[in-house]
Amino acid sequence: MAEPTVFVHGFLDDHRVWDGVVAALPAVGEYVAVDLAGSGDRAAETGPFTYDRFAADVLSTVDAIGGPFLLVGHSMGAAVAELVAAARPRLTRGLVLVNPVPLAGTHLPDEAIEPFRSLGEAGAEAQRAARANLSPNLGAETSERIGAAGLRLRPEVVRAFASCWNNGAPEGHAPSGYPGPVLLVRGGDDPFVTAGLVAGAVAPRFAAPVTQVVGGAGHWTHAEAPARLAELIARFAGGQARGWAAGFSRKSADAFGESFAEDVVLEAATLLEPVEGRDNVRRVMAAASGIYESLQFTHQTESGERTYLEWEAVAFGGTTLLGVTVLTKDEAGRIVRAAIHHRPLGGALKFSAELGRRLPDLAAAHFHQEA
């Protein structure tokens, strides 16, 4: 891991919930798991227990690092991590959100949120049942281990935390203030942070998020499948896909150029012939990123030197484009070849023609010419 990684826990948890993930990450990395006020080693602290307070505390931690860092947050901790990333966008090299509740809040009605608010006074059995409902595959031993954190919370703290993630923050009603690369991880069996919730209230706020689903895991994915989550975090931190996503997020030639080899070759369904060389390819990609109104990477896998990214995009006032990108890296981890496959054909041809209009100084032979 090139940069220190800072972990932010969620509701009913403390910094120890990340132990399994940290143990599965490369031993050479630097990892910092924080306690939010009122939790863990800070259980005796008084309020306010708000997103503003939590973000300010984590900002103190990342500022003490004195350099770039990676942020990982779970559930309401994902919202805290996003606020921190938005406050330090240049230093945040990436943002990993695990089963994230929307920063704008869930806005459950009183009868639905009250069972969460009352978990502090309800006792151990009620908290165990809540975890089992949200993470049906959570083993008894793991549930007991991480459940100790919830039992240390004062009832008024639990109520305040639940109100915090239910009410949300005003920043959640606008596009995210963090423009960098984002990895969204969801447990496939999470009945609370569902695929629909992520697709509708989380992913659209980011410029080009990568989405991964951990099958067989529920809301506490980091406790149920720590090795798998660690693998996803490490791949995101070190893979060429992060640099590729960063280019789309920042929509700049320089951002794309950082991940390219000097002799990189770009092939695409929108190009009649390949584009060669870092300068040319980064200009084409910057222009392409400007055409997309939204872009989401929905699946990612790696095999040897290749990374495969499946994506969905919207352009031209609402036209949906789908595709797969194949990135090939050299021994230094730089992208030497990018192959981008668009569909449907009509959208690809329109995209090609628009690229040609935006890049008049590149050879016209690269682009489709509309009649």
Features:
Rossmann fold; Nuclear Transport Factor 2, Chain: A; elongated; 2 domains; alpha/beta; 6-stranded mixed sheet; 23% strand; 6-stranded parallel sheet; 371 residues
Structure description:
Residues 242-337 form the SnoaL-like domain. One of its GO terms (cellular component) is membrane. The mean pLDDT is 92. The protein has 371 residues and is of the alpha/beta class. It contains 15 helices and twelve strands. Helix 6 packs across helix 7 (140-151).
Question: Which helices and strands appear, and what pairs or packs with what?
Answer:
Elements (H helix, E strand, L loop, with lengths): L4 E4 L10 H6 L6 E4 L16 H15 L3 E6 L1 H12 L4 E7 L11 H8 L1 H4 L1 H11 L5 H12 L3 H13 L14 E6 L7 H8 L7 E5 L6 H4 L1 H13 L1 H11 L2 H5 L2 E9 L6 E2 L1 H14 E12 L2 E10 L3 E11 L5 E9 L1 H14 L13
Parallel strand pairs: 1-2, 1-3, 3-4, 4-5, 5-6, 7-12
Antiparallel strand pairs: 7-8, 9-10, 10-11, 11-12
Number of helices: 15
The Rg value, from CA coordinates, equals: 22 Å
Number of domains: 2
Name of the CATH architecture of the largest domain: 3-Layer(aba) Sandwich
For the secondary structure, the number of strands is 12
Mean pLDDT: 92
What is the CATH class designation of the largest domain?
A: Alpha Beta
Pairing-aware structural class of the strands and helices?
alpha/beta
Residue share in helix: 40-55%
- Low-pLDDT segments: none
**% residues in beta strands:** 15-25%
How far apart the termini lie comes to: 50 Å
Determine the CATH superfamily of the largest domain. Answer: Alpha/Beta hydrolase fold, catalytic domain
CATH fold topology of the largest domain: Rossmann fold
